[in-house]
Amino acid sequence: MNILLKSARIIDPNSKFHQQIKDILIEKGIITQIAKNIPTPKNCKEVNLINLHISTGWFDTSVSFGEPGFEERETIHHGLEVAAKSGFTAVAVNPNTNPVIDNKSAVEFIKNKAFGNAVELYPIANLTQKAEGKELAEMFDMQNSGAIAFGDYNKAIDNTNLMKIALLYAQNFDALVLSFPQEKTTSTLGYVNEGINSTKLGLKSIPALAEELHIARDLYLLEYTGGKLHIPTISTVKSVKLIKDAKNKGLQVTCSVTAHHLNLTDDELMNFNTNIKVSPPLRTKKDTSALVKGVKDGTIDIITSDHNPMDIEHKKVEFENAKFGTIGLESAFGSTHNVIDIENTILCLSENPRKIFGLAPLKIEVEEIANITLFNPDVDFIFTEENILSKSKNAAFLGEKLKGTAYGIIANKELVLK
Predict the structure, then answer these.
(1) What is the pLDDT of residue 86?
(2) Which of 192, 203, 233, 396 has the most CB atoms in a 10 Å sphere around its CB?
(3) 378 is catalytic
(4) Smallest Cα–Cα separation from 59: which of 396, 361, 407?
(5) Are 381 and 64 in contact (CB under 8 A)?
(6) CA-to-CA separations, 37 to 21, 24, 26, 373, 375, in angstroms, rounded
(7) Cα separation of 213 and 181, whole Å?
(8) Is 246 left (phi over 0), alpha (psi -120 to 50) or beta?
(9) Does the residue 329 lie in any domain?
(10) Where are the alpha helices (DSSP H) in 249-381?
(11) 83/143 Cα distance (integer angstroms)
(12) pLDDT at position 69, please?
């Protein structure tokens, strides 16, 4: 399909057209012309949208779809449709499946299920066999089959020696190791932030200390072993400081934060809304402010939706018994742009994720591949069930005011609009 984008503001600091309003002609998946006014050629789809902005395609580095094993929550095919209409041209899928992704056959199954979609799917494989934290999985074989990183989703590696060996071994094939930061003995049976609100409500809690102890341990290990470490979904003031100090030492450490941790706090607990039961738990306003600052100063590299669909049977129960997780693809951009300026939002949704997870860089220039997100950053709206595209409806941002919405994507020679 040939496509002409009309009057699009280009947000791409690596392009000479950054912040300029241009027409963009795309032919056979390649950008062939960027100019002030391009007449629409024959057999070309013209796209003329209100306040159209474009950037290089967004990449969400923490997405769960359920398949295989939990298709009632979400399937790969439908999940990729949701991602496309939410502005993402690529997603990294977590291994919280049944069976887990701990061998090359499982990696190949996920890749094959996604074949032919506009959105590229990249599996994150388990770091340990059966996600049990006891023995390393077949990392080298899985990377050769298409895995782009290794980590046990929302499960900390308690065995310090195992994490040390993982960091050493991964250097042989330049693999990225993920380590979910939650020290188990400090957080046993907890499910909300430890603080005033958990005490008032009598809810079992997870202290910020549990995250910070684990991060401190992993950073000591990284300093000892070398290698590349990515710490997903940090949530506390001290976590930001620990990672900032490690970066200043020259360690190859990166980290991400979720859109909901940038916006929401444990004050939301007062309604016992199970959609805001997430892991790590929502923290305090002080933590949220530190996370926003960490994004703006470059300490935090990536913003993710941490999209984790849960069917109603696992959410419409008592708070204590509800599963962790919120969907977030549909609200990722609008909630991020609530608190982060547009250029940092795009940096943390596109350029940084691709660089850290080893994907090819993108640029909006003539003769470049068209891998583009279309969006309007200036529309304000209340996020309701009508905005949910996922099979599961467990959205933490229901009823929240968001700023900005995605129109869709152009990727793999396809135009997908919602």
Answers:
(1) 98
(2) 396
(3) no
(4) 361
(5) no
(6) 10, 9, 14, 21, 20
(7) 8
(8) alpha
(9) yes
(10) 259-263, 285-296, 332-339, 342-346, 352-356
(11) 24
(12) 95
- CA dist 332 and 96 (Å) reads 20
pLDDT of residue 363: 97
Sequence-distant (≥ 6) Cβ neighbours of residue 378 within 8 angstroms: 51, 403, 404
Q: 3-state DSSP call for residue 326?
A: strand
Residues 311 and 371 both lie in one domain: no
> Are 21 and 154 contained in the same domain?
no
CB 103 within 8 A of CB 128: no
Do 6 and 110 lie in a common domain? no
Find the angle CA(45)-CA(47)-CA(50) to the nearest 5 degrees.
165
Dig out the tokens for 45 from the structure: 């789809």
Does residue 361 lie within any of the structural domains?
no
Q: How far apart are CA 179 and CA 408, in angstroms?
A: 32
CA distance 220 to 91: 30
CATH for 188: 3.20.20.140
Candidates 158, 287, 306, 378; catalytic one: 306
Q: How far apart are CA 362 and CA 359, in angstroms?
A: 9
User: How many Å apart are CA 14 and CA 16, to the nearest integer?
Assistant: 7
Residue 178, domain member (yes or no): yes
How many domains are there within the chain? 2
Q: Which residues pair with 55 in a beta bridge?
A: 11, 373
Q: Give the predicted TM-score (pTM) of the model.
A: 0.96
Asked if residue 325 lies in contact with residue 308, where contact means CB atoms within 8 angstroms, the answer is: yes
The contacts of residue 306 (CB under 8 Å, 6+ apart) are 62, 63, 232, 233, 258, 259, 260, 278, 325, 326, 328
Please give the single-letter amino acid code of residue 333: F
Distance CA 28, CA 256 (A): 34
Rounded mean pLDDT for each run of 10 residues along the chain, 418 residues in total: 96 97 98 96 95 98 96 96 98 96 97 96 98 96 98 96 98 98 92 96 96 98 97 98 98 98 96 96 98 98 98 94 97 97 97 97 98 97 96 97 98 96
Look at residue 187 in the predicted model and tell me its pLDDT: 87
Q: What are 410's strand-pairing partners?
A: 372, 415
Measuring CA to CA, which residue among 297, 333, 301 is closest to residue 57?
Answer: 333
C-alpha dist (Å) from residue 359 to 92, 354, 397: 11, 5, 30
Report the C-alpha gap between 102 and 100 in whole angstroms.
6
Residue 74 and residue 78: Cα distance in Å, rounded?
Answer: 7
Residue-level pLDDT at 1: 85
Residues spanned by the domain of 98: 57-356
